[in-house]
């Protein structure tokens, strides 16, 4: 579980996060939604340690991030998988080498142990036949699968995903959603997904947090989203749905 308590963050006097309080539960897909500039990306980056909040607390289970020493933070990073918006694969490395990268960086596994772990992760996301290919030879959906395989290579306790469906067609996006949910349940990870895709929310949103103008103003599950009486959330859902329908035309 990851807990955020009374988190504040501002840039140039503008409050981007204002007294954020939320718990992200283990074994669930926790969705952060909100329009561009609402603060959802800053919240995810603060959780990842990429943005330092002005005040407040971020707890990883019973460990307070701000009280960790450098060695403890390094250990936490090993327990945290990151799935970036544009996959962020290394163009010069093969699929196999991309997935092996965190193992090379953070473990003392033997070459054979690394090979077994890489093969397991690629098989788990169903891209084992592409292990020798370069990222440039893969489709957008395949790149996402490889990025997920790399994110789970160290068997993380936490998985942080930034717009995992960005650039994908709706059908491929659903496949990626289901894969993330499947891995979350199987590995018991605390998964946090920053998204603006209502398809994703309604497909896998075990817990949904809506951010509006820096405030966490609503939370519920995927069934609750369409029955909310929160005006800001309803406007966001309507605008997002309409934009998606217009793109289809």
Rg over CA atoms, rounded to whole Å, is 18 Å
Along the chain, the helix and strand elements come as EEEHEEHEHHHEHEHEEHH
Please give the CATH architecture of the largest domain: 3-Layer(aba) Sandwich
> What's the N-to-C terminus distance?
41 Å
Helix content: 40-55%
Q: List the total number of helices.
A: 9
**Structural class, judged by helices and strands?**
alpha/beta
Give the averaged pLDDT, no decimals.
90
Question: Mind explaining what this structure looks like?
Answer:
With 249 residues, the protein is α/β, with parallel strands linked by helices. The chain folds into two domains: 2-79 and 157-248, Rossmann fold; 87-155, no CATH class. 41% of the residues lie in helices and 24% in strands. The protein has nine helices and ten strands. The protein has helices at 40-48, 70-78, 95-106, 111-124, 140-151, 170-187, 198-204, 222-225, 231-248, and strands spanning 2-11, 14-24, 29-33, 55-60, 63-64, 80-83, 158-162, 190-194, 207-212, 215-220. Strands 6-7-8-3-9-10 form a six-stranded mixed β-sheet. Strands 2-1-4-5 form a four-stranded antiparallel β-sheet, with helices on one face. A hairpin with a 2-residue loop joins strand 9 (207-212) and strand 10. Helix 3 (95-106) crosses helix 4 (111-124), helix 3 (95-106) runs parallel beside helix 5 (140-151) and helix 5 (140-151) runs parallel beside helix 6. The protein is globular.
């Amino acid at each position: 579980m990851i807990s955020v308590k009374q988190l504040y963050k501002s840039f140039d006097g503008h409050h981007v996060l204002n007294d954020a309080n939320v718990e992200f539960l283990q074994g669930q897909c926790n969705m952060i939604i909100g329009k561009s500039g609402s603060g959802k990306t800053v919240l995810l980056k603060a959780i990842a340690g990429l943005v330092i909040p002005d005040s407040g607390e971020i707890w990883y289970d019973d460990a307070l991030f701000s009280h960790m020493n450098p060695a403890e933070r390094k250990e936490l990073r090993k327990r945290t998988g990151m799935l970036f918006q544009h996959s962020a694969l290394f163009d010069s490395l093969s699929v196999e080498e991309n997935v092996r990268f965190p193992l090379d960086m953070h473990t003392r596994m033997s070459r054979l142990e690394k090979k077994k772990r890489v093969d397991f992760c690629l098989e788990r996301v169903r891209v084992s036949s592409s292990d020798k290919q370069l990222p440039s030879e893969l489709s957008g959906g395949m790149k996402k699968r490889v990025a997920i395989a790399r994110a789970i290579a160290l068997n993380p306790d936490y998985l942080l995903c930034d717009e995992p469906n960005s650039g994908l067609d709706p059908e491929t996006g659903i496949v990626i959603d289901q894969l993330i949910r499947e891995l979350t349940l199987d590995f018991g990870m605390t998964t946090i997904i920053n998204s603006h895709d209502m398809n994703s929310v309604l497909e896998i949103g075990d817990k949904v947090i809506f951010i509006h103008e820096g405030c966490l103003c609503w939370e519920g599950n995927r069934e609750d989203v369409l029955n909310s009486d929160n005006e800001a959330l309803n406007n966001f859902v309507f605008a997002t749905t309409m934009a998606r329908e217009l793109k289809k035309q």
